[in-house]
Amino acid sequence: MADPANFKALVLQQRDGKTYAEITHLNLTDLPAGEVLVAIDFSSLNYKDGLAVTGKGKIVRRFPLVPGIDFAGTVLESSSSTYRPGDPVVLTGWGVGESFWGGYAQRARVAADWLVPLPVGLDSRQAMAIGTAGFTAMLCVLALEHAGLKPDAGKPVLVTGASGGVGSVAVALLAGLGYRVAAVTGRPENETFLRELGAAEIIDREQMNRPFRPLETQLWAGVVDTVGGSILARALAETDYGGAVAACGLAGGVDLPTTVMPFILRGVQLLGVDSVMCPLSLRRPAWARLVRDLPSATLERLTQTISLTEVPPLAEAILAGQVRGRIVVDPNR
Fold first, then answer.
1. CATH code at position 93
2. Other beta carbons less than 10 A from residue 76's beta carbon
3. What are 212-248's pLDDT values in tens digits?
4. Using the 8-state DSSP alphabet, how is residue 256 labeled?
5. Do residues 95 and 156 both lie within one domain?
6. Helical H runs in 177-295?
């Protein structure tokens, strides 16, 4: 009979300065300390996971480590009064999968404060089809709404990196809320996919990478930017007077070659969006809105499911911009 304390995990090791991802079996005694032991149903693959698993970003600094920045599952044991065995839970952020052992395993032990109850209306697979990327997209939408953006603004909302995890969910959310969405992608083969999600206009990424002036023609009522760099700078230069740009990514670089002109001459707001350390007071409303505003059929269209053994090659692919939509990781298959 199998030992219930023995479980499968993807573990990162570092040898001679190189990161290796290895499927292995661990025991519950191998897990770090924490108040809640969770049986993981699903995790997901995000851009940051790609950086961690491949070692191409300085995401993981202590080895060995189980990556996976999010997961959904069921509480097995708890020393916290907040959760009891049998409770379904979700975790995103808090440095899990970076500084703390994460979701690419069948078991995890974490702090109770890092968890939220699985939102009513979602199962654990749907929660990870949303995952960190979808949760971040919702935070971007909430930030734009808080800045005053409304569907009747008269101009489209731009979404950069639209084929990726955050971008694709943002397109679906904004289109479902009644916004006209312009989607930026470097992969023309994804046009049909993006239009199915609700994009009204497809913009080639190279167009956004062309040289631009400090202020360009005002095209966008708002922007969800997932890439940063010169594309974010151009989006700022093209944002409408009083508009807002929610920035949440850096796949295009960490530099921002812009000027103060969009801010002081057009009153454009640049809104930084962080999903890692955002408080529970933001997490609960964001998950509630995702249940309300992201149809399950749309979510399914966005999503594919893989096993732990498929994570390393797809981690390479997500960094190369070759993954569209969302990838759910099933550690139990």
1. 3.90.180.10
2. 17
3. 999 999 999 999 999 999 999 999 999 999 999 999 9
4. -
5. no
6. 191-197, 205-208, 229-238, 261-265, 280-293
